[in-house]
From TrEMBL:
Function according to Swiss-Prot or TrEMBL: Transcriptional repressor of xylose-utilizing enzymes.
Protein name per UniProt: Beta-glucoside kinase
Organism expressing this protein natively: Eisenbergiella tayi
Family: Belongs to the ROK (NagC/XylR) family.
Assigned EC number: 2.7.1.85
GO biological process: D-xylose metabolic process
Length: 322
């Protein structure tokens, strides 16, 4: 039989999940929405208020009787630090539960990225002791909390960032590949409508992809999925700094990548984040792909300007699961 603590925790999670995105809500309304009894909801809300996770947010309009109190999730109860690392560049945002940014900024590590990250986390935690977790997005192959491969000269390669920061600050930490975070953010922003979506981005460190299948980010058996520079005939051609990179061949590179994903994953949509090589070529790209891909299997191609937005959203989605 389930213990009292387990039942209490389950009830708190039911009420907490119901309150997300609702705004101020009464106990009686929560009882109707959750299916829990009013006494159970009342006790659960009182416990969440005692812990600071829920706060009173006014009262309902009176219809002649006593006005019922309204409650909402306290956005400052849990703060999450989102860090994005690319080579020596570090970008950060501290967000509350409603996604509001409390502080943000960026800096260059000058070869001492780990020290920069540690100093930044320490300073923010001193200012905001209610920080509950850290999510680090990194450009490169990430597995088991480590950056294993990077298209640039990242000083963090081989370091178990997840364990390092978790042990250093006693907080839950998640390290994830940047494109996997982007894909999670895009899926969340689109309302999780597609069975499969692929996101493709070309940055200064090369091209990578993130994949979501039925709501789950697919990283592969060894977190290698999406490392496009390892595809046949692609090494050295997908990173603008490499000598073999040729802007005139980028349309062909995109065509091959779309055909590969269409034949293996058969996604509904492929999101191509905007860059100069995609300007004015969408129609031609469709035409080239449709020479190989059957019409009924051709994915919808979307050129998006929302890379940063999707990246940030994805990091926050991951933070919510810590």
């Amino acid at each position: 039989m389930a213990s009292t603590i387990t039942v209490r925790d389950m009830n708190q999670e039911i009420v907490r999940s119901c309150m997300k995105g609702l705004g101020p809500v009464s106990k009686s309304s929560l009882a109707r929405k959750t299916g829990l009894s009013f006494p159970t909801v009342s006790k659960t809300v009182d416990l969440l208020c005692e812990s600071g996770e829920v706060e009173v947010a006014g009262t309902e309009g009176s219809s002649g009787g006593r006005c019922a109190a309204l409650y909402r999730l306290n956005p400052m109860y849990a703060l999450y630090l989102l860090l994005a690392v690319e080579n020596d560049s570090v970008h950060w945002k501290l967000k509350d539960l409603e996604g509001n940014s409390l502080t943000s900024g960026s800096t260059e590590g000058d070869g001492e990225v780990l020290a920069v990250l540690e100093k930044k986390v320490e300073s923010i935690r001193q200012l905001y002791p209610s920080m509950k977790g850290i999510v680090i997005g990194a450009a490169g192959m990430v597995s088991g909390g480590k950056i294993l491969l990077s298209g640039g000269e990242c000083q963090l390669v081989g370091i178990d960032l997840q364990a390092y920061f978790s042990n250093r600050f006693g907080l839950p930490v998640r390290v994830i590949n940047d494109m996997n975070a982007v894909a999670a953010g895009r899926w969340s922003s689109d309302g999780q409508k597609d069975n499969c979506c692929v996101c493709v981005y070309l940055g200064k460190n090369g091209m990578g992809a993130g994949i979501v299948i039925n709501g789950n980010v697919w990283q592969g058996a060894s977190d290698f999925a999406g490392e496009l520079s390892f595809l046949p005939d692609m090494p050295g051609k997908l990173r603008p700094q490499d000598k073999d990179f040729a802007p005139s061949r980028m349309l062909d590179a995109y065509r091959k990548i779309i055909q590969i994903y269409a034949s293996i994953l058969n996604p509904q949509r492929i999101i191509l984040y905007r860059n100069p090589f995609l300007e004015g070529v969408l129609e031609e790209l469709y035409q080239e792909c449709e020479k190989i891909i059957p019409e009924h299997s051709m994915p919808l191609l979307v050129i998006s300007d929302d890379y940063e937005k999707d990246y940030e959203k994805g990091l926050m989605v991951i933070a919510g699961s810590l």
